[in-house]
Amino acid sequence: MSKFEEKTLSTQPVLNGRVIQVRVDEVLLPNGAVSKRELVKHPGAVAVIAVTEEGKLILVEQYRKAMEKLLVEIPAGKLEPGEAPEATAVRELEEETGYGCDEMKLIASFYTSPGFADELVYLYEAVGLRKLEQKADLDEDEFVELLEVTLEEAQELVQAQRIHDAKTLLAIQHLQLKNR
Amino acid sequence: MSKFEEKTLSTQPVLNGRVIQVRVDEVLLPNGAVSKRELVKHPGAVAVIAVTEEGKLILVEQYRKAMEKLLVEIPAGKLEPGEAPEATAVRELEEETGYGCDEMKLIASFYTSPGFADELVYLYEAVGLRKLEQKADLDEDEFVELLEVTLEEAQELVQAQRIHDAKTLLAIQHLQLKNR
């Protein structure tokens, strides 16, 4: 048994959704007390750092219902069942931006909200970026607008809070570290 | 109306939890189609970059039920109702680490999982860190172990995937950029 492990006493499923599953577990704490954990299961996702030959970072602006606002983010998307993260990264880059690449290089992986969710994001860097002759189709419920910005412009978008999510900040810091 | 806005047609609440609220919204998409969005509302959180006089980064190891494993993270915690993020940062640092500070400097804020959750994390850097004479009490359902590591050791923890969450990677990148 792992240090501080919380043994599950009972599980109450509350949502079996298209994207997430939500449940409430009753757990036995290390001190013998009983508590509840509200947990979100997520299939995992990928995000892609894609920089053009001209040194521009490719971003997508989309409406995010959870915040009821537009956010500018690096291209990203959920894993489909059985899909390897690298294949998801290639697919999402093609669908959202119309760019392909020679190679997807894994930069990092990270849990986004370990306090309540198991979502794991694989962050890739697209190597050998090239424009596709034909743009792949977006999912039918996705609407995004493409932006190509310098690193300086990306930092201005952070200041303006139009870029305001963890994976895109990680991507920008990665490029800052790489460029030094 | 904002570009790409998704108008809510109906809302189905599925969980009114202690930490999160979950609901499923039926939305009208920009193309006139109808879709569903599974949404998690979260009170928001803070995370604290705390470096000792000896240049060691303060980390906490804790069991994370969503992943069923131990993770090493920077000190963090949820906002209490009506609590200013800066006060939460001071409180969480004291409770989890036994350190106080002269000033909490806001480094960044970010949504952790904009695809399904509205959790916003405020990332602070503790300035003028000092050990408290008496350690504040942890929440009754919190069990953490303190680590103090060099930046190099932190990067080894990333390689070993014992550090494996977005906010802690952002903190490490921030320190790498600052130290150059």
Give descriptors for this structure.
4-stranded mixed sheet, NUDIX hydrolase (chains A, B), homodimer, Nudix_hydrolase (chains A, B), NUDIX_hydrolase_CS (chains A, B), pyrophosphatase activity (chains A, B), 41% strand, 3-stranded antiparallel sheet, hydrolase (chains A, B), 180 residues
Overview of the molecule:
The structure is a homodimer of 180-residue chains. Helix content of chain A is 20%, strand content 41%. Chain A has helices at residues 85-97, 151-159, 166-179; strands at residues 7-16, 21-28, 34-41, 45-49, 57-64, 69-73, 76-78, 99-100, 103-111, 120-127, 130-131, 144-149. The first copy, chain A, has 3 helices and 12 strands, in the order E-E-E-E-E-E-E-H-E-E-E-E-E-H-H. Chain A is α+β, with helices and mostly antiparallel strands and 180 residues long. The longest helix of chain A is centred in the C-terminal third of the chain and has 14 residues, at 166-179. In chain A, strands 7-4-10-9 form a 4-stranded mixed β-sheet, with helices on one face. The first copy, chain A, has a 3-stranded antiparallel β-sheet with strand order 1-2-3, with no helix packed on it. Chains A and B meet through strand 2, strand 3, strand 5, strand 6 and strand 9 of A and strand 2, strand 3, strand 5, strand 6 and strand 9 of B.
